[in-house]
Amino acid sequence: MKITMLLKSGPRTDEAQRAFVTASDMLAQGHDVALFLLQEAVRFCAPGLRVSDTLSLEQLIEKGLKVYALSNDLKLRGIDETLEQEQILKAGYDSLVDLMDASDRVMGIL
Prior knowledge:
- The protein is of the alpha/beta class.
- Helix content is about 35%, strand content about 25%.
- The chain is built from 4 helices and 5 strands.
- Helix 3 (about 70-75) links the parallel strand 3 and strand 4.
């Protein structure tokens, strides 16, 4: 099953922790999972961010998670030019709509 998750909460929040654990569980069950970062969640893309109380994006990406970050929100937070993680794809609203349309399920963990 193809699942898209939307996350708008930033690092060190219960919502982010829940999104990462849920994504990890679904990947372990063999689902194709994409995580789309919006609003404060794009702060996971900030260079040098270390969050010890959650699974890291790098660990989830290694398990097969596809990660997208909304380019407008990256730019608003000054992260656009410093996006170092090549595995995280910048995407616009059109890409978000396409991703949601192509998914069997869409989950918002806002």
